[in-house]
Specification:
The structure is a single chain. By secondary structure, this protein is an alpha+beta fold. Helices cover about 30% and strands about 30% of the residues. It contains 25 helices and 51 strands. The strands form ten sheets. Strands 7, 8, 9, 10, 11, 12, 13, 14, 15, 16 and 17 form an eleven-stranded mixed β-sheet that branches. Strands 29-30-31-32-41-38-37-34-35 form a nine-stranded antiparallel β-sheet, with helices on one face. Strands 18-42-19-23-43 form a five-stranded antiparallel β-sheet, with helices on one face. Strand 10, helix 13 and strand 11 form a beta-alpha-beta unit. Helix 6 runs antiparallel to helix 7. The protein is elongated. The N and C termini lie far apart (about 95 Å). The relative contact order is 0.08. This is Glycoside hydrolase family 38 N-terminal domain-containing protein.
Length: about 1000
């Protein structure tokens, strides 16, 4: 190679302050390669000076022996005749290229030449890469200094002398001198940064994995390369470590666990587990195996918490150690589940959805809190370590973070072996100095790294959950549907209600628990799961038997209407129910709302059942007959008349021409809402949703206890073509504030929906309209009332329409997808025309209910009345009574997932989930049918925690349990009884 007087690069910027910070990755790769290639030791040794730079639009005069590097983004800015001038100078070498490899070839440098080979020293192996790293670090320090308006203190002459000395020593194969000189170079650059910032940025390298990626990577020898790159600090030799991190998602953990349990041993996974046990390798996990089908917004709070627990257990079983940092490859981390993460022992959380590219925040490391629990979160925007564009202005970015008082962090994310040259330069520089930061394992980042003092916020509900579910529904590989999702959710709610019922019963009568076999509950749960829908006759019979034993009676085996009935309510809200007694009416108690004669000598009884309590009815009085005047005038009217339903609280008007709900009128509040079936824009041909045409409307039941009207007809598009047939049934009960609507839609067209965008243009929905344009839609997600910023959201329990002085709950019985249309309309999506199968659906409108979450759950799992025989010896007969067994002081607080068990000391423990359904703080009192001895929030010891020196966050005095709940807080509470 001929000697050169100068090596320079032409930059597409006027100053280093204007150095590009974005653009195509190809331009960034060529630009950074053009800068660092000139720091090759052969060039430095020949020119004996640091490379210089010029503006691309004002290049130097190409005279004498020189090297001019022109990166791709500079080609458009150079003067038209500059290339001709360079070509006219035989001693001028013109260098362009897409990357360093092409530029090396243009320079005529052979990477395999002996003078370019790795040079082992006493402390490390030196290479050309160390000089590239020095060049990259020099660029970043200069950009940071100028962009942050600082005055440079860099001794450029000293830097030049030492880098040239290092280059000459390297070419002469003098490892000791080269290493000493390079130390001086990196120390000089570190001192320059230390003039402005004394704290070191944090660098976190995170490799993403999927089962297929892990398999192919291990087959390609990635495990060995990864382990070699994960180095530890060597303080004695001045070599800094570059620890690495892995994201072990639920699918990967399941694959590793399956291989671990497989009969045929797989050594690759053994090496993978051994890799994660190294001090220089960190990892994050805790996600469950299931993917997008397990959208957290489509679950109850208990189900979501169980998923976190199962994911943590899966990771621990697969890897052999419990993860200390929580992260998932895809999916959000809701703020209301932060306490669940803290309870599982996580030191930190990465709440980023790497698939969707969401979840990061404005700050890199923050404290996130939920329900009086705090966890540190890494919320830095992920940098693609395979893209040079992310590294153009990394130094300035980290400097800005430090300047604003943040915990400066670069989260470098990539797939195995998928990294760019700039990332390798950064890693190489980090072994010499901390000028650009220090690499951390995730565990040490959260335990030993700089502590944040700023609080950040996580979203409570996902902005992308609706799109994910829509994509899943239309996926040809998926056999799910909105109806199947709804039924699965309802099954979960019913199962939780059944567990609560059994727990309350065994608390009130502990002998019922002692009589059970140890595996009874597991068997019951397995039986319920196998049903795949609502509890069958076996489940209900078991529940009826249990409650009857509690009261001291037996369920009736006679199919005829009995004189006695029992109703147990496992939900956290009082409810009004109806049943029929034979041979008379119950006593005039306050909880008996009304009792009227029914056909066949029966009596229709409307009665109230307390929250988590029971009501017992007995026909001990004759049914009150109508007066003479009523009989002479035809008797009292039923609730249903032609196109009208009326009870004590509302009047419901139906549209005879369309079969839709035209209005609900309640006293002075006027028309509350209207409802109709609609088809989305592409199906109906316009934004109005099509036209309902009623073919038949009739009163199918009307008495003083229940009114029912059935309407059937067709849904037409804008051209009058039938796109679906419908059948609707409207029900209104005596003394009820609930309007029940159930129906069936038969699509008459079949459309292939290929994208999520097309889904929202081709759905069928129940459209609810309110009068006020200022109504706020509040989705009920994970047993809480939330606010939604997105027009498309997931809310399987339903949506609360919040107006100034009135609230209306639209309960969809597990239907997950809802959409706000314009200012006054809510679409509850019931299905898409991907087939000709009928689409059944149910919707209930609840007006001004104080506990919308509990009401929505009680619609799905209502209190059931059943006939009883009170003929047992010693059992009182003819009793009409009522009792609560668990009482919650606040209507905004929900108790679910109750379970009873004996502690090792013989005392009875009740474990339950207590949820604050509203975004406010409440002081809660819990009372039980038995006297509570102690209470505490569950930890890893479960119900076995010692009762000595319990924390003061939960009080228990005179049998009353007291505690405070924060905004949307959910706690895992254990109450101990000495019974």
């Amino acid at each position: 190679m001929a000697p050169f007087d100068e090596c320079s690069v032409l930059l597409p910027s006027a100053t280093l302050e204007d150095f590009p910070a974005g653009g195509p990755d190809s331009d960034a790769r060529s630009l950074l390669a053009g800068w660092t290639i000139l720091w090759h030791p052969l060039l430095l040794a020949q020119t004996e000076q640091i490379p210089t730079w010029y503006r691309a639009d004002t290049p130097p005069n190409p005279e004498g022996p020189r090297v001019i590097v022109v990166p791709d983004p500079s080609l458009k800015q150079i003067p038209a005749d500059f290339r001709r001038k360079c070509d006219g100078n035989p001693d001028c070498t013109w260098v362009t290229g897409a990357d360093r490899a092409e530029m090396l070839a243009a320079l005529g440098i052979d990477p395999a030449a002996p003078r370019c080979a790795a040079l082992p020293s006493a402390t490390r192996s030196l290479g050309v890469e160390d000089f590239y790293a020095a060049g990259y670090l020099s660029l970043q320090i200069q950009i940071m200094t100028r962009r942050l308006r600082y005055t440079s203190n860099l001794d450029e002459l000293h830097l030049q002398n030492r880098i040239v000395a290092a280059a000459k020593a390297f070419c002469d194969r003098d490892a000791t001198s080269a290493a000493e000189a390079l130390h001086d170079v990196f120390d000089s650059l570190s001192e320059e940064r230390d003039h402005y910032f004394s704290s070191d940025p944090h660098l976190v390298d995170l490799t993403l994995l999927t089962p297929s990626v892990l398999k192919s990577a291990t087959e390609a020898g990635w495990l060995e390369r990864f382990q070699a790159s994960a180095t530890a600090d060597n303080d004695g030799d001045g070599v800094l470590g570059t620890p690495r991190n892995l994201l072990v998602d639920g699918a990967v953990a399941a694959e590793v666990r399956a291989a671990k349990d497989a009969p045929q041993h797989d050594e690759r996974f053994d090496r993978f587990r051994q890799l994660l046990s190294l001090d220089t390798v960190g990892w994050a996990g805790g996600g469950w195996n299931g993917g997008d089908s397990n959208a957290l917004d489509a679950m109850t709070m208990a189900s979501a918490r169980h998923l976190f627990e199962s994911g943590t257990a899966l990771a621990a079983a697969a890897i052999g150690q419990t993860p200390s940092v929580y992260a998932r490859l895809s999916g959000m981390t809701p703020v209301d589940l932060v306490p669940a993460l803290a309870a599982l022992g996580y030191q930190g959380v990465i709440p980023i959805d790497f698939t969707a590219g969401t979840g990061f925040g404005d700050e890199s490391k923050v404290i996130v809190s939920g329900g009086h629990k705090e966890v540190e979160a890494l919320t830095a925007k992920p940098m693609d370590a395979a893209s040079d564009a992310a590294f153009l202005a990394l130094g300035a970015h980290l400097g800005e973070l430090i300047d604003t008082g943040e915990v400066a962090t670069a989260l470098l994310v990539h797939w195995p072996d998928r990294v760019c040259d700039s990332f390798l330069d950064l890693c190489r520089a980090a072994t010499w100095s901390v000028a650009m930061g220090r690499f951390w394992t995730l565990e040490r980042y959260f335990t030993d790294g700089e502590r944040p003092y700023h609080h950040g916020s996580l979203d409570a509900i996902s902005k992308h959950a609706a799109a994910e579910i829509a994509q899943q529904v239309i996926d040809p590989k998926s056999d799910t549907s909105l109806g199947a999702m709804a039924e699965s959710f309802c099954h979960t709610v019913r199962t939780e209600a059944r567990r609560t019922l059994r727990a309350i019963a065994t608390l009130a009568k502990p002998s019922l628990l002692d009589d059970q076999q140890p595996d009874d509950e597991q068997a019951d749960d397995a039986h319920s799961e196998s049903a795949g829908g609502s509890p069958d006759s076996h489940d209900r019979a078991d529940d009826h038997q249990l409650i009857a034993q509690l009261v001291g009676v037996t369920p009736s085996t006679d199919d005829r209407i009995a004189k006695d009935a029992l109703c147990f309510n496992a939900q956290g809200v009082a409810t009004r129910r109806q049943t029929q007694l034979q041979g008379g009416s119950p006593a005039n108690e306050k909880f008996v709302y009304a009792a009227t004669a029914a056909g066949g000598g029966g009596c229709d009884v409307t009665f109230d059942v307390p929250a988590m309590g029971f009501t017992r009815l007995s026909a001990t009085k004759p049914v009150k007959k109508q007066g003479l005047l009523k009989r002479l005038t035809g008797g009292e009217k039923g609730i249903a008349e032609h196109a009208v339903l009326k009870n004590e609280f509302m009047a419901v008007a139906l549209d005879e021409t369309g079969g839709s709900l035209s209005g609900v009128f309640s006293a002075s509040r006027g028309n509350r809402l209207s409802m109709r079936l609609v088809a989305a824009a592409d199906l109906s041909g316009d934004k109005e949703g099509g036209t309902m045409v009623c073919k038949r409307m009739e009163v199918t039941q009307s008495d003083r206890a229940l009114g029912e009207i059935t309407a059937s007809g067709e849904l037409h598009d804008n051209d009058g073509k039938t796109i679906a047939e419908f059948s609707l049934r409207y029900r209104l009960r005596r003394g009820s504030r609930l309007l029940e609507v159930d129906g069936t839609l038969h699509p008459k067209t079949k459309i292939e929906i290929e994208s999520e965008g097309a889904f929202w243009k081709n759905y069928f929905a129940v459209r609810t309209a309110v009068a006020g344009e200022a109504a706020i839609l509040r989705p009920l997600v994970r047993d809480k009332v939330h606010s939604a910023s997105s027009k498309k959201f997931v809310a399987p329990l339903g949506v609360l329409i919040d107006e100034a002085e009135k609230q209306t709950l639209v309960a969809g019985y597990g239907l997950p997808l809802h959409r706000k249309v314009a200012d006054r309309f809510l679409d509850t999506v019931i299905g898409v025309p991907t087939g000709t199968e009928a689409i059944p659906f149910r919707v209930t409108f609840a007006f001004d209910c104080p506990s919308p979450v509990a009401v929505a759950r009680s619609c799905i799992a209502p209190a059931e009345a059943f006939a009883i025989d009170s003929s047992e010896s010693g059992s009182p007969t003819g009793v009409t009574s009522q009792a609560w067994l668990v009482h919650v002081s606040s209507t905004d607080v929900l108790v679910t997932e109750m379970k009873t068990a004996r502690r090792s000391d013989g005392k009875l423990a009740v474990r339950m989930q207590v949820v604050q359904t509203r975004p406010k703080t409440s002081k809660v009192k819990l009372q039980f049918c038995a006297v509570a001895e102690a209470a505490f929030i569950a930890d890893i010891t479960g119900i076995e925690r010692s009762l000595e020196d319990l924390p003061q966050d939960v009080g228990c005095e005179d049998g009353v349990v007291t505690f405070s709940l924060g905004n949307h807080q959910a706690i895992d509470l254990v109450v101990v009884f000495d019974i």
